[in-house]
Amino acid sequence: MKVAGGVLPVRFRPGTGPALVFLHYWGGSGETFARVAERVAPGRPVVRYDQRGWGAARELPGPYGLTQLAEDARQVVEGLDRYVLIGHSMGGKVAQLVAAGRPAGLAGVVLVAPAPARPAVGPQEQEALAHAYDNAETVRGALDHVLTHRPLPDDVRERVVADSLAATEDARLTWPREGIAEDIGDIVGRVEVPVLVLAGERDQVDPPAVLAERLLPFLPTATMAVLPGTGHLSPLEAPGEIATRLEAFVAGL
Asked: Is the peptide bond before 207 cis (omega within 30 degrees of 0)?
């Protein structure tokens, strides 16, 4: 798909009904939601892609901030008759921005362990986060001590390490130094469609209490459900539960 500066590789699984459009987290890829996509209804259209600066989209130039990532997502969904945005962490903040623009065809939004609209981090935390993906050792440390609660299968774990290192330096640093601290609380109130927030009970990055304080008050159409015994990487830790929640959400639209 043509976007600003080049081509964004997009994977599309055809089907009927609302399409599920997945936006991955900082350090992830379109593969982050692969295990979820395998578990939703087989006839469900699915759209996945690596965001600008990551994985297969590394050749795309910056900027890599929220505004550009949201514009990329808008172009991805353009032409879809009806769709649901599913955003994880950074992808969740991107999804909030897209939904605030009230694009045609948007039926609902599912925010999975999303970064809140009103930031919950300070400069010291931002700088520490900027070094989380310096190398394979720091990525594994983040996985073991911060990002997950449930252990990941070995192949999934190694895919996460590879994805976390598969970024341009500018893309890798823009989120912790800029995007995560951007306050969009005054913008997301424009969202009109139903929103489901899925919070991990044991999430150390965006825990339920933070989302209840810094996200839900700004999204009047949102409800939140807590995933028991799950950390920040819930699409990888609990793909079956995420898929079940997605199907129930779509059925209720």
From this structure: no
Residues β-bridged to residue 225: 198
| pTM > 0.70 | yes
CB 250 within 8 A of CB 84: yes
Name the nearest CA neighbour of 113 among 237, 252, 20, 10.
237
pLDDT digits 0-9 by tens, 61-114: 999 999 999 999 999 999 899 999 999 999 999 999 999 999 999 999 999 999
DSSP 8-state code for residue 167: B
DSSP, collapsed to helix, strand or coil, labels residue 20 as strand
Q: CA–CA separation, 110 vs 222, rounded Å?
A: 9
Q: Which domains does the chain have, with CATH numbers?
A: 2-251 (3.40.50.1820)
Q: Which one-letter DSSP state was computed for residue 115?
A: P
CB 113 within 8 A of CB 92: yes
Identify the three-state secondary structure at position 2: strand
Tens digit of pLDDT for each residue in 33-64?
A: 999 999 999 999 999 999 999 999 999 999 99
Q: Comparing C-alpha atoms, which of 101, 105, 88, 114 is closest to residue 30? A: 88
Cα separation of 82 and 102, whole Å?
A: 13
Residue 29 to residues 34, 101, 118, 253: CA-CA distances in angstroms? 9, 24, 25, 27
Q: What is the DSSP letter of 151?
A: P
